[in-house]
User: Which sequence fits this backbone?
């Protein structure tokens, strides 16, 4: 669709248009970010986070369940 909008603008059919495509990462960028996220969250980090959250939640009155 972006190509069609660009062609329409070049032909003078459109003066301006806006596209969200510059704000949305490409499929490759999304996959790279997901891989980095998954590599960061090791089993140990997940366990540490859950333990800390449960402990701190109990301190402020939340039930561990």
Assistant:
């Amino acid at each position: 669709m972006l190509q069609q909008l660009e062609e329409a603008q070049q032909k003078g059919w459109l003066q301006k248009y806006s596209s969200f495509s510059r704000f949305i990462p490409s499929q490759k960028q999304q996959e790279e970010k997901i891989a980095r996220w998954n590599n960061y969250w090791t089993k140990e980090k997940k366990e540490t986070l859950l333990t800390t959250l449960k402990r701190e939640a109990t301190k402020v009155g939340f039930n561990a369940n």
In short: Residues 22 and 31 are 17 Å apart (CA to CA).
